[in-house]
Amino acid sequence: MSYKDTIFSAPIDKIGDFTFDARVAEVFPDMIQRSVPGYSNIISAIGMMAERFARPHSNIYDLGCSLGAATLSVRRHIQHEGCKIIAVDNSQAMVERCRLHVDAYRAETPVDVIQADIREVNIDNASVVVLNFTLQFLPPDDRYQLLNQIYQGLNPGGVLILSEKFVFPDDKANTLLIDLHHDFKRANGYSELEISQKRSAIENVLQPDSIETHKARFHDIGFSSFDVWFQCFNFGSMFAVK
User: Nearest Cα to 84, choosing from 105, 113, 121, 64?
Assistant: First the structure.
């Protein structure tokens, strides 16, 4: 069961850093749908891309799986023999609920849900790797190393799907897209207080990169093809093929 997100609806004297704790896990489906424009489209398309890139007897990784939305989308779409999905998150509350969601749906493709730091996961024999709004929560200095680990563990022709909040080098454009995102949240029922307090809680935790920064990393690491496949305001998703 999912509840309405009211975490920031009352005034908070001292706002701490945002964490993916039990309170957030309980309301996460409502929070993500009302906060991230295009989220449902991204989840659906992740499954479609997995169907295109997954290969028999290979691994599919969902790094930062939260409640398993991307994992379940992938599992609905792939039919290959010998595939396994490995879903990883460092939040115990998220992992516990993810396991319940995975177990609620019968499917041939097995899923291992693991509580771990994604930076310490061994990526091996991978045809698809998903980082769905995950990289932005890592310290910037750790991002290149994780992407390189993913590249090394991808099989030739394998794909990385990376969804992120973006920052834009043009200040006017960046401000406009942030304002449009806040309009999106207002349209979905968030108050000015909720928007302000959530922004204060997350600003030290979520540090977005520009699209150009992502592309430069992909190029330097060695991906053969990469680009943005979806964008709505300052949120979007990219692919990178080995």
Answer: 113
Strand order through the sheet with 154-165: 111-115, 84-89, 59-63, 126-132, 154-165, 235-241, 225-232
The pLDDT tens digits for 13-52 are 777 778 888 888 888 888 999 999 999 999 999 999 999 9
127 is in an annotated binding site: no
CATH number of the domain residue 139 falls in: 3.40.50.150
CA angle 122, 116, 140 (to 5 degrees): 80
Q: Residue 15, annotated ligand binder?
A: no
pLDDT (0 to 100) of residue 2: 63
Q: Is 64 annotated as a binding residue?
A: yes
Domain of 222, in residue numbers: 39-167+206-241
Is residue 132 a known part of a binding site? yes
Q: Is 39 annotated as a binding residue?
A: yes
What's the distance, CA 220 to chain centroid?
Answer: 22
Q: Is 117 annotated as a binding residue?
A: yes
Q: What is the DSSP string of 83-126?
A: -EEEEEES-HHHHHHHHHHHHTS--SS-EEEEES-GGG----SE
Domain count, the chain: 1
The response to whether 217 counts as a known ligand-binding position is no
Asked whether residue 163 is marked as a ligand-binding residue, the answer is no
